[in-house]
Amino acid sequence: MLVVRNLSKSFGRPAVINLDLRIEAGEIYALLGPNGAGKTTTLRMVCGLLTPDSGAIEIGGIDARADPAAAKRITAWLPDEPLLYDRLTPLEYLEFVAGLWRVPADIARTRAQSLLTELGLWPHRGEFCEGFSRGMRQKTALAGALLHDPHLLIMDEPLSGLDAAASRQVKDLLRARALAGGTIVITTHVLEVAERLADRIGIIAGGRMVAEGDFAALRARAGHDHGTLEDIFLHLTAAA
Description:
The protein has helices at residues 39-47, 68-73, 90-101, 105-118, 134-146, 164-179, 191-197, 215-222, 229-238; strands at residues 2-10, 14-23, 28-32, 54-59, 62-63, 75-78, 152-156, 183-187, 200-205, 208-213. The protein has 240 residues and is an alpha/beta fold. Helix 3 crosses helix 4 (105-118), helix 3 (90-101) packs parallel to helix 5 and helix 8 packs across helix 9.
């Protein structure tokens, strides 16, 4: 679903250096790294928000650099501080998003009800977003990101600000989408989230991929047979 080859970007100094990445359909992938490692820069390039200096990006077989509009139609990006319109209700917000993506009204209504129900927001569908907690805002934004049924969903700190019940709702929804063939990429500094949610994990440091694989493979790479992801992460990034 997502293939990145020799991707590079500099801002006066190198931020991402010849990065290769391959993520399959139906996979939940966590891209981890210390601050300044290049993970957000990488994902912004994948989403078309930044132009790479060099390299190739394919999303669902589409050359994202040659045809960015087609690639964006099957992609969704959810930042950790999503923008909502405070004087809209969740239903009005989703109607607005559906219009941007040209989702037919009948399909949009069905998807909106399904998403808001799965995320526990249906009872609040008529309330203005300005009164929502951070967690409710995050879930409303997630519903908006999923409304056009993207093949690739990229999320920055997906569980930030969510309580235990809301976190479970989001994790269940993401897992269901992956089982249905959707691809999800997350970044997070909460390593327990990556350990519990991701099928595979990539660790980036200094703009380069230093390790990649499932949790067992990363343990073997770090030589920590019984270590936590935090132990492995600190070992691998310190050695990079």
